[in-house]
Each structure stands twice: as C-alpha cells, then as structure tokens.
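INFO batch 0412 | record 1 of 1 | parsing
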Amino acid sequence: MKKIFLTLTAVLIAGIFAGCASTKNNTSANTNVYESTDTSTSYPQETEIVYAGTETKELCNITINGITYEKTGEVLIRPLGEFVGTVNKQLHPFEKGKIVTMNPYIMNKYEVTQEFYAAVMKDQKVVIDGKTYILNSDPSCCKNSNGYHILAEGEIEKYRPVERVTICDAMYFCNILSEKTGLSKAYNIIIKQIEDGHITDANITLIKDSNGYRLPTHAEWEFAARGGDPTKEDWNYRYSGSKEIDDVAWYYYNTCNNGITASAEPVPGNAGFGAHEVGMKKANRIGLFDMNGNVSEFDADYEFLGGGWFDTIDRCETTTTCHFSNAKRGKEGDIGFRLVRSVQ
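INFO prediction complete | emitting tokens
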C-alpha cells in the first residue's frame, strides 16, 4: 500500500516537506524501544471467553505552571476481563485466537498540538561531549507562513498537531512533561546525537512502574482506536468510530475539500492543505479524536499508526501499521504523536 501522489512532482513534494524526507513502509518494525507489558496473551482452550466490558472516564486538560492548555484532555481506559483476538495478522497484539488481557491506562483525547509541544520544549538544552544543543520547540512545517500548508477556514493554527518530530523527540517530550506535571519519568534516555535541533539517536528504555507520560504501545493505541470494547459493533469498523472515513479523518482526498472526499487531488497553497486543528472531526465512542488521519501517530515500537492528511484511504485504516526505514531519525510533516500514561 503506497501513497498515491499522481500529478504531484518530486520537486513539489520536496518543497512541501523540506527537511522531512524519509522512507515509509507498510510493515511492522523489528526494533522495540522496550518489551511491551500492557497486555498478556495465551491461546484459548474449550471454555468460552466473554468480555466483561470497559470503563472509561474523561479527565481534565493538563496544567503546567498555572497555565491550563486546551486540547490536552485525557480519557481513563479500564478494560475489564479478557477477550479473544480476531485480527488475521501474525504477531499482531490482537492476533486471531489469542486470549488478551489489557492493563488500565490514560490516553490523551487529542494529538499533541503545536502550542503544547512548544510550551513543554521551550529552552530545552542538551549537552553531548561538552557541546550544548538547543532542541527545536517549533518544528512543524504545517504553517500558514510557509505558503504551502494554509490553514482551513475557521481553524486555529496553534491547535494543529505537532509534526516533523523524531520518535526520540517525542519520548524526550514525554519525560519533560512528566517533570513539569509532577509525575515520574517514563524513560531512561541517553542522547547520542542531535541534528538540526532534533534527537536522531539515543539509547532509550522504559522505566518500570513509572506513572509518567509515554508513547502508547501498539495494543493500547489500537484498543482505544477501536472503541475499547471487542463486544461492540464499532470494534470492527474500518475507522475509529465510523465506517466512513469522512466522519472521523482528514486524509489526502478530503483535506482541501472541507473534509468531504473529492475526486481531484489537493493543491498546495489551497486552504486545508496540511494538518488540521485537532478535534474538528467526530470522536470515537470513548471520546478520542483523530485516531485516523490528520497526522499518523508514533507508538512505542517505532511504528506509526492511523494514517495522516497526506495519506490515501488504505493507509488510514485502524489496523494498518507503518514504519520508517530508519526509525530513530525519521520525521515527516504528517507524523506526530499522542500521549498515554499508566494507571498505578
């Protein structure tokens, strides 16, 4: 499954994503940042497994130094009991025939916004071998100012999702946010390389029993995207919260057409060509926005999930998994991230 760019030339794409070029593939990455502990699996015997349901609760926006940031609300997701996987993919967390038990967790309702990323990452400095580097707190290329990614009418630019970050940037952001909100860090991070204000190489391990912010595992992300309950109809929807992509996602053929699929390709410089303000589409049943489209989202296993505004429809399916050919260095103008934290 590849993106269809059709009449867009390589020169135009290079201009749109200047400094963002990387190779994406539709297969699962082999390198894990840590061993996933959010689920346990086994194979069912003759006894029928009946899932008991999922409890959810909406939580408040995040406050840092007395400032409460919009579009940072969270949802507590508490799975009850175990269920049998139904996905026909080997090594998938919900592989067909496996018994799955999920631990509770808290997930952000929205993708991390440009405003929130800048607030957390402001004045972040890293010293490597005696040399001081300042990390880029405003990396996004989806901005009116570049002339390509014009904001859609009625939207607010600071609430566009942050993009053009590496997965190492995202994990570092999680640690700084945890510090600023009084939580314990989720990662041990030894930074090895900085390029153009981005962390492009680091040794990263998960800290056991941390309550701090981190990236979701594949299982956590997909469980939430599918509505958090395998007994409900929406669990099997193609998209998070709907059978129809236009209800819930910004993607290549609706991004410049007020969210309605068009036959014509989008035109750079037209309103809507780029990421959109988070939360403008319909939420899924447990209150999560933009789980498909807008920007793809990093998970803890160096994958990215859900598809983005520059992806075609097949890349935006909830069960589609992609990765960079160079996981730690990769960054693009349609890939961002969403936060989770463990429930102690």
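INFO post-check: The longest helix spans residues 167-180.
INFO record closed
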